[in-house]
Design goal:
- The complex is a heterodimer.
- Chain A starts with a helix and ends with a strand.
- In chain A, 39% of the residues lie in helices and 23% in strands.
- Chain A has four helices and four strands; from the N terminus they run αααββαββ.
- In chain A, a hairpin with a 2-residue loop joins β3 and β4.
- Chain A has one domain: Heat Shock Protein 90 (2-Layer Sandwich), CATH 3.30.565.
- By secondary structure, chain A is of the alpha+beta class.
- In chain B, the strands form two sheets. In chain B, strands 1-2-4-6-7 form a five-stranded mixed beta sheet. A two-stranded parallel sheet of chain B has the order 3-5.
- In chain B, β1 and β2 form a beta hairpin.
- The longest helix of chain B has 14 residues.
- Chain B starts with a strand and ends in a 10-residue tail after the last helix.
- The chains are: A alpha+beta, B alpha/beta.
- Chains A and B meet through α1, α2 and α4 of A and α2 and α3 of B.
Chain lengths: 132, 118
């Protein structure tokens, strides 16, 4: 997909229509959409693809246990995949305005991996098909 | 970004007519909300019953509005879908807002009730 927030939205809407029948689980479908929207919006905002016109690639595979997703882009390399550890604390001082995205991704994925391969960013996200 | 306003004395209900509050519209949401604010309002109820999807940007925008109101007016939420409620719960932001199942319940609730109301 061409990198833009609008295309992320369209892609997520398509993805939802395609996957929902196979997933049979409203909550899991929501989590997949949320996690991918967060990760893709992050690429749109930070990778430089929005300016260069380079495409962002999204692949989703289902097996019995998991929803395995991979996002690839040719944008700028990431400094590192930092685990924010926890959500901004709503009860501590002022309510936070941002910083929810990565904690959401970490919380909802069972596996999360970033690699820089052959000039490409590769983000692997795995979500369970069963929700506790 | 379509928001509509309905005044009930010192309570103003702002309804989001969009079905997604996400990165694409987060900034416009904040701007539109500000356009609809009135100095008489002591309480805003944000009606999210049309919103099927909320991401971290959308949530950030709602929190930004909440913070901008400060002591001037409260911001309560109403009509959260299960999907949107999940995001509030995951981020623990459901402890920051008073959340009502619908606008009618929000309007009939007494000030000072916290958490969920049914």
């Amino acid at each position: 997909m061409v990198a833009s927030f609008g295309n992320v939205r369209r892609t997520m809407q398509d993805m939802r229509q395609t996957l929902a029948p196979s997933l049979h689980n409203e909550a899991v479908t929501d989590y997949v959409e949320l996690v991918l929207a967060e990760a893709l919006n992050n690429v749109v905002e930070h990778s430089g693809c929005a300016e260069s016109g380079e495409l962002i690639h999204l692949e989703i595979m289902l097996d019995d246990r998991d929803v395995r997703c991979q996002i690839r882009d040719c944008g700028a390399p990431w400094p590192e995949l930092r685990n924010p550890g926890r959500f901004p604390d709503p009860l501590e001082g002022d309510a936070p305005e941002g910083g929810f995205g990565w904690p959401l991704i970490h919380t909802l994925t069972r596996e999360l991996r970033y690699e820089r391969v052959l000039g490409e960013n590769r983000l692997t996200l795995v979500l369970p098909r069963q929700v506790q | 970004m379509n928001l509509t306003r309905q005044n009930y004395g010192t309570t103003t209900v702002i309804s989001c007519e969009e079905d997604r509050l996400d990165a694409l519209v987060a900034v416009r949401f904040k701007d539109r909300f500000r356009d609809l604010q009135s100095s008489d309002a002591r309480r805003y109820v944000l009606d999210l019953s049309n919103v099927a999807f909320l991401d971290s940007s959308g949530l950030g925008a709602v929190v930004a509005v909440y913070k901008a109101l400060g002591d001037e007016a409260a911001l309560d939420l109403a009509g959260l879908s299960p999907t949107v409620e999940r995001v509030l719960r995951l981020t623990r932001m459901d402890s920051v807002f008073r959340i009502y199942p619908d606008v009618e319940t929000a309007l009939t609730a007494r000030e000072g009730t916290s958490g969920y109301a049914a």
